[in-house]
Amino acid sequence: MSDTGTGGGADTARAPGSGRAGPADGPRDGLTDVAGLRVGHARVPGAGALSGTTVVLTPEGGAIAAVDVRGGGPGTRETDALDPRNLVQRIDAVVLTGGSAYGLDAAGGVMAWLEERGRGVPVGGPGRVVPVVPAACVFDLGRGGDWRARPDASTGRAAIEDAARRPSGAPVETGSVGAGTGAVAGGLKGGVGTASTVLADSGATVAALVVVNAVGSVMNPRTGGLYGTDAGEGVPPPAPGVHREALRRLERARSASGPPPLNTTLAVVATDARLTRAQAQKLAGTAHDGIARAVRPVHLLNDGDTVFALATDGVELAAGNPLALNEVLAAGADVVSRAIVRAVLTATGTSGPGGVFPSYRELYDIN
Description:
Layout lengths: L23 E2 L12 E6 L8 E6 L5 E7 L6 E2 L12 E2 L1 E5 L8 H11 L4 E2 L6 E2 L4 E3 L15 H13 L18 E2 L2 E2 L1 E8 L6 E8 L27 H16 L10 E8 L3 H18 L11 E10 L9 H22 L3 E3 L2 E3 L2 H4 L4
Parallel strand pairs: 7-10, 15-16
Antiparallel strand pairs: 1-13, 2-3, 3-7, 4-6, 4-16, 5-10, 8-9, 11-12, 13-14, 14-15, 17-18
């Protein structure tokens, strides 16, 4: 098995004529379908490293932001600042990183990059800003063999520079990249996934980016099918004989990888709908439903499941209709589930001193 990341993931998009009514996939079926958002990745260098950082960079002027943390073992930074009762109104970037709590140092490199460009909360004269950079981490320590190979400020800077150099609307690289480099989900290789939809009523775009690194499983142990798939999307459940052999291969891989590690699934769900901070908070909360549909069990004590919500103010929801937000909330959960499927289908398996982590495609011999 290779330990290199993969990009793309277009083969996982829903096919036309799948029978699914209502919202349609965004042009790139990814987070960058929300205008102005950019995504960059960086990997920790070194033979014993299997970790990295992913940064979501907002447009100039920032985005309304909120967060909802439900896992029992979270590792986060600056999440209290996103409480709707507090001062900060907008943020310029979100950091998703490997390295457990050590990896939160990556946010320092992102802060430095933003400060150099005068982006952040003004606190005095010209150039005096404090960038508010919320961050959350997944546990991937030692998966490449070197316990100390983890993201730091230089990794965060590399990731935001990668985001900044990409043109607006550039496709999001998925699979074993960035914060998903060392991700594992129920013994399978996890990674980064993304998805988007355009709402039928308002025309607003809702999108998600997910780092899948779960204690729970992404596949049904009885059939081998992925929990997050629906009609017309992904791959069908494998034949029973193929599934039985895949389970044997997965068990051998788990035996070679030692005790079950700590985990966490992270997500950024974004929209160009104009939301208040309280509405963004609701979106972050309901987006957790998408994780629960695609990963079972979820929100355990050794997960740190965290969802950030971003809103960029492009589309006004129906005035005078307090329930217009429902369409956005439902779509947020849907795109999170689909992003999890894409992460699993585009991940690349790895084998080394830190363990054996096969990908779903390798396990079931899917081209």
